[in-house]
Every structure is written in C-alpha cells, then in structure tokens.
Amino acid sequence: MEGMEQWRNEAKQWLQQGIEYAHQIPPTQLYAAAAVLLLTTLFFLIIRLFKRTKSSTIVLTGLTGSGKTVLFYQLRDGSSHQGTVTSMEPNEGTFILHSESSKKGKIKPVHLVDVPGHSRLRPKLDEFLPQAAGIVFVVDALEFLPNLRGVSEYLYDILTKASVVKRKVPVLICCNKADKVTAHSKEFIRKQLEKEIDKLRVSRSGISEADVANEFTLGIPGEAFSFSHCSNKVTIAESSGLTGEISQVEQFIREHVRP
Amino acid sequence: MLEQLLIFTRGGLILWTCKELGNALKGSPIDTLIRSCLLEERSGAASYNYDAPGAAYTLKWTFHNELGLVFVAVYQRILHLLYVDELLAMVKREFSEIYDPKRMNYNDFDETFRQLRKEAEARAEELKKSKQLDRPVSDRKKQGQVKKGGFEGGNKKKSEANDGGDGDTGKSYKLENGHSNGNHVNIEGSRAVVANGKENASSNVGAFDVSKLQKLKSKGGKKTNAVVSKGSKVDVDPKKKVTKKNRVWDDSPQDSKLDFTDPVENGNENIEVVATDHGESMMDKEEIISSDSEAEDEEVGKESKPDTKKKGWFSSMFQSIAGKANLEKSDLEPALKALKDRLMTKNVAEEIAEKLCESVAASLEGKKLASFTRISSTVQAAMEEALVRILTPRRSIDILRDVHAAKEQRKPYVVVFVGVNGVGKSTNLAKVAYWLLQHKISVMMAACDTFRSGAVEQLRTHARRLQIPIFEKGYEKDPAIVAKEAIQEATRNGSDVVLVDTAGRMQDNEPLMRALSKLIYLNNPDLVLFVGEALVGNDAVDQLSKFNQKLADLSTSPSPRLIDGILLTKFDTIDDKVGAALSMVYISGAPVMFVGCGQSYTDLKKLNVKSIVKTLLK
C-alpha cells in the first residue's frame, strides 16, 4: 500500500513538472507544432484516398497454355521474342503499352500482371485480384472444346469471387490464337461458355450455402445464364498473340486505366 | 550430342536457345518437365526422362535462384553424356554475368556457348581416354589404386558439378589439362574422399522413381521388374489355375465351404426401417478456421526459436540485419534438417520429407537473403509454398459436376474403392452414398467384396438404412463379373452413381492385385478411389506406389487406369500428425477428395489445404 502511495505521489510530481514545462514554451510554438501535425495527417489521408480510387492493375489470367505470357510481352515490347514455356511465376511490370510509346504527351503507365494458369499455382491469383482494375481472361480459341469444362470452371470461380463482384471489376474474355484457321469464333465461344456456366450454376447451387470457394451465385435463377446478367461488365474480344493483333485488348486496357 | 539447351526465366520467357543445334524437339519436353517435375516439387531429382512418339529424351536442369533463371539441357536417352552437368554449370556461370533483366536478346552468347561446349566435350573425351589408359595398367596391384582413383575422381567431378560448380572445379580441370593423365588421376584418387556414392545412388534412385512414375503414366506400360525402390519384393507367382483358390492363412486344412450366404431373406423384410437422416454431411459445412492463425504464424517466425544456441542466435541476428550475400547449401542445411525432422514427427514418410527438402534447397540455393529475415524463416516460407502447391489439386475435384456430366450421357458414374485391409472402405462408401443422397443423386451399391465374411451383409445393412438399391451376388464369385453386372443393372434402373466395394488386399500380393487390375480394366470406372488411413506411416509410400505400379503393369490395355483420387480415413484419430496426407499426395499425384473423420454417416469432409499446411509446419 505504501508503495502505491509513493507511486501516486511521484506520478503527480511528474505531471506537475510536465505542465510547468509546457507553460514555459511560448504559445506560438505549440500552435505551430500542432498545426504541422494536423496538416501531415490530413495529407496522408488524402493521398490514401486518391490511391484507393485509382488502382491501375490489369490482371492477365486464363488456363495454362492459352497464351498469357505471349500477350504480356506483346503488350510490353511488341514482340514475343523467342517464345515461351509454361510459367512458374507471375510476370509483373509497370510500363507504357508498346503501341502507345510513339504517342506524345503524358501517358500513365499500366501495371500489368500475368498470373500462371497452371492449376497448382491458382492461389497466386488471389494475391493480385484485390488490386485489379480489370481482368483479361485469355481463352485458347484453338483447343477450346477439349478444355471447355476447365475454362468455364475457372471463369465461374473468378466471376463469383467476392473481390470481383463487390468492386464490379470488368472482365474481358479474350479469344486468343484467332489467327489460326481452325480457331473458333468469339460468338461460338460466348454461347458455349454461357451454356456451361449455366450448368455449373445448377450443380454448384446445391452446395453454394456452404461451399467456401464460391461466395456468390451468378445470374438470375430460373433464366438461362447470359453474361449480361453479371453485375460487372463482361465483354468478349478476339486477339492473336503471335502475330501481334492485340488492338482490342489494348482498347480494353485504356478504357479502364485512366490516362 | 546435345539435342538442345534452353535458358528461360521462371516467368516463362525463353531467353536463349542454341541455334547450332537446330533440331526441333519432338513433343513438348520442356512443358512436360515443368508440369510434371518442377511444379511437383521434384526439382531435387538429377534428371527427367521424357518419352514422345519417335523420341526418348533425358532432360537435366539447373536453377539460378537469385536471377530467377532456369537452364535446361535435352539429349537422347541412349547417349549417356557425362559432360552435361558441368556444361550446365559453366553456362550458368557465364550467362549470369551477361544477364540483364531488360535485355531480351542474347545473340552474342552463341560464341561463348560454342566454346564452352567444345571445352566440355574435350574434357569428356580426355576422361574417356584416361579410363582406357588405366585398363591395361590395372593388372599390377600398385596401379590398381590408380584405376579406382580414376573412377572415384570421375565420380567426384560429377558430384562437384552437381553442387553447382564454382571456381574450384575450374581449377581442378585446368590441373588436369596441364599434367599427364596417369599422374593427375593418382592425385585425384588420393583426394577423392567422401565417395559421394551415397549422393549419386540416391539421386539415381530419385531419377529412377520419377522415370518410373512417368513410365506409368505414358502409353505402353512395359513390365519393369527391376524395381529400385526400397523394400520391394517381386512375387512372380505363375498361377496357371483359372479358378480362385481359397486363401489359406495357417496350416490347418480348410475343407468346408466358406459361403454362408443366407438363401432365405424372409427374416429381414419384416423389419420396417426408416431411412436414416442424420442431418447435413460435414462435406457441406464450412470449415471454421481460426482467424488468428495468420498473425500467429508471422509472429512465431520472427521471434527467436528456443532451440537455437546463444552463439548461433547472435550471428544469425547479425546476418539477418545485414542481409547475407548468397545462400549456400551449407547455410540451408541446418534449417532444412530441422524442418525435415519436424515433418517426420508429423508422420510424413521419411523418403518424402527428404525429397521435399532437396527440392526446396534447389529452389533457394544462390538466392539473396532479404534484410531483416532469418534463414529459417526464408526456408519456412519456401517450404510452406511448396506444400500448398503439392496439396492443391491438379484438376478439379468437383464430383457432383462429373456426376451431372455422366448423367447427361445416360451412363452411371462408377466409383471403385480400393485399398489394403482394414482401412475403412465399406464404412466410407456408406458415408459417400449418404452425401450423394443429400444432393438428390440416386446411388446404387455393388458388393464386390466376395471374400470377407460379413462384407455383403454389412453393405446390405447400410443399403437398408439409406434405402438405396444394392447389387450383390453373395460370396465366392468373381468380383469383376459382379461389378459388370451391377453397372448393367444401374443403367437399366437409372441410377446415377454406382459405388463398388472391393476386398482389401496387400500391395505385394500378386494374384489379388491381378484380380483388381482385371476388375478395373473390365469395367473402366470413372473414378478409382484409393482408401488410405491417416494412421499409416512410411508404408503409405509403398502402398500407393505398388498399387499404381501393379495397376499399370498388369493391365492389358495400352493406357492403364491409375489411382485418380485418395480418400483419407480415420482422420479423427490423429491429433496433429497429418503427414500421411502429404506422403500420399506426393507419391501418387492424386488429390485427396474426401476425408473420413468418424464412424457415422455425416463424418465426411473435404481437405482444407491451408489448415493441413499450418499443422504440418507448427
């Protein structure tokens, strides 16, 4: 008990000393210090606000072998150099698109991420989705039908993720390898994907209350699924990574990353 | 002659290929290497064999972890080129000097590569000549040492190159060129200390294992009786008899018939049994993961561990703040050993833990330590990533979707449960049936365990409680035929799924494995589910590899069916020794589709990868 008393007395003494010291400082200095502190905190808050509204990351994703890495290098350098192999790690870069490097004026660089499509590396996508301003989902238009189930499952998973639905991230379905003769058209691909996702909806809705993977359901129950039912904008385009026909992809990127 | 040598980044861009060796590679060996080996955490193996129609290649690789580059050499398997490892090491050294992340074109490397290749080939020639010179000399006992020294020297060189040669190997080679062959070999022989024969042998075993796994998966399964894996006994028991003989466990003669099937079923029909409804199966319940797990992990990583000594703690703290230059294998050794021991205490098979550690070491060697991180936390992070990668399924395990797809084609979806004795096949079969019933799928059971007394009755009881049809033919019948008829019956009465129960059998019992293979070949099921218990230890590796091997060898079709999925049972009996899941997934490549955690109908759940990894590394 005595110890406590002593403690309390000492604390009181310190407090009094502190107050005396504070009184000694001329008031202008105190006000100046307080003002500077206030201004810096306001400054930081404003910066953070700005940063949050303007995220300029575009995520390139899709099944393995669909041509994401080729597209990445086309967008960046205008050529795919000596070819690619299956990616083991994501390719990231912040740059001005190659086709726009000749334009004059201030162009905002784009932060592009190419996430590997191999199923063992799927968890990597979740690292980049929260900062995505747009998703380019690359589909192999040549080997489309054999991979139809895999493609539609992956697309379904992406369209039902919380970070995509809540922030209404726009998705561009890019039918790659369109330069080949036997590649399917984008209308055909769109119809097939819509049919498959419709079936997936039915089979997944049975477990959707407890399925940890799919947090939202797609579309309007009772009606056949169509991409127009999604709350975020889903468009479809064609491209060819090897020959460099990527104008539609670049358009999409420019639309969603304010220059 | 080398077929091709590639340099590419981990992100997938090819930086340089040799233009002189312009042969186009048949098939896609590089992509297959990445998918089946490097991403499967087998990068500690020495080489990889690839078979394509018209070519058989061997691939060797090395990493430069700091710059994120991969160097791969491809050559024909029939040529046993010895200089490939050294060549890869030299190429790695030279290329990392001229590498620049912004540069995409490395045409000037052609010259350098040409010189390096000439050097390596010349050295290989000299080594061959030196071996030939030794042979006539070896008669004399004194010179016998020289020959042994020569071979050991050769071994040592190879193992040194395996370690990712530095300046040392360069020096030793220059020495060789200077002196005469005989002299030098003697010097080498006396220096050849640690016959890294063990390392070579283990790497050979690793290579063989991987190559065996590849052979299993490729078309044309040949009978490989030369099994290198440990503890295997090949029972070649030529059974000429067609009829199934009774199994005799002890010496007492068995003459009475074993079939006790009740010919009359009247007694059972009178009992009215209400269909069991035990509520929602745990498959559909969300897994409640503790939310503070993530923060815990990081904190534990940063705090000092109690088992490091005071001396080591200070130096490691200093290193962590300064950020050491490059990680060497010797630095990684203690951390990896500690991790391996921890994994083994969690019931991971010893062989698997070893291979995993090698793979993680291969991916971390030469990497720069970031400041304010300790070696052990870097190793732990790499190991965690590797574990998540292994346990994440390679393909979709959505069974309901597969069932719907089969329904559209008006075929029943057939699942066969296989495994050794006593792991819980019949119990878990009933649980899976219950779960499917909850999702409004009609199920039919097929009692193809015609050996064990009471197996058919057991399934009959389950079928009665769940009110689903069961197809049975009693005991002492051929299981393959019973299964075939069950599937035909299911097609007729419109069942969506057929669950086939088989008898338990040990993995090295040749006649029983042959019978199983016949069942699978005859009926071509949609899913072959291997049922394994979580209590199993090192035997898991043996069980799965033998099952896969026997299914491949004894099948008469060109593309044999292997194990497609794993059902892990008795998960509630192990507290945190969850390593069996990892061993099984690593050795077979099949995903864990269900986990049985109790003996009632609702005790079936999905594997939660994150929680398993957390438990393994705790």
TrEMBL record, chain A:
Membrane-protein topology: Single-pass membrane protein
Keyword list, A-Z: Endoplasmic reticulum, GTP-binding, Membrane, Nucleotide-binding, Receptor, Transmembrane, Transmembrane helix
A family per Pfam: SRPRB
Q: Which InterPro entries match?
A: P-loop_NTPase, SRP_receptor_beta_su
What CDD domains would the database entry show? SR_beta (cd04105)
Where does the protein principally reside?
A: endoplasmic reticulum
- Lineage top rank: taxon: Eukaryota
Q: Which residues form a coiled coil?
A: none
Q: Does the keyword Nucleotide-binding apply?
A: yes
| SUPFAM superfamilies xref list | P-loop containing nucleoside triphosphate hydrolases (SSF52540)
Where does the record place it? Endoplasmic reticulum membrane
Which family does the record assign? Belongs to the SRP receptor beta subunit family.
Could you identify this protein by its name?
Signal recognition particle receptor subunit beta
State the organism of origin: Hevea brasiliensis (Para rubber tree)
Give the lineage.
Answer: Eukaryota, Viridiplantae, Streptophyta, Embryophyta, Tracheophyta
Automatic annotation (TrEMBL), chain B:
Q: Where is the protein localized?
A: Endoplasmic reticulum membrane
SRP54-type proteins GTP-binding domain location is: 591-604
Which SUPFAM superfamilies does the entry link to?
Domain of the SRP/SRP receptor G-proteins, P-loop containing nucleoside triphosphate hydrolases, SNARE-like
Compositionally skewed regions (Basic and acidic residues) per UniProt: 126-142, 168-177, 247-260
Top-rank taxon, per record: Eukaryota
Which membrane topology term applies here? Peripheral membrane protein
* Keyword terms of this UniProt record: Endoplasmic reticulum, GTP-binding, Membrane, Nucleotide-binding, Receptor
What PROSITE patterns does this protein's entry cite? SRP54 (PS00300)
Q: Does the keyword Disulfide bond apply?
A: no
Which InterPro entries does its entry note? Answer: AAA+_ATPase (IPR003593), Longin-like_dom_sf (IPR011012), P-loop_NTPase (IPR027417), Sig_recog_particle_rcpt_asu_N (IPR007222), Signal_recog_particl_SRP54_hlx (IPR013822), SRP/SRP_N (IPR036225), SRP54_GTPase_dom (IPR000897), SRP54_N_sf (IPR042101)
Among its keywords, does the record have GTP-binding? yes
Q: Which residue stretches belong to region Disordered?
A: 126-185, 244-265, 289-309
The entry sums up its family as follows:
Belongs to the GTP-binding SRP family.
The entry's protein name is: SRP54-type proteins GTP-binding domain-containing protein
> Source species, please?
Hevea brasiliensis
Specify the taxonomic lineage: Eukaryota, Viridiplantae, Streptophyta, Embryophyta, Tracheophyta
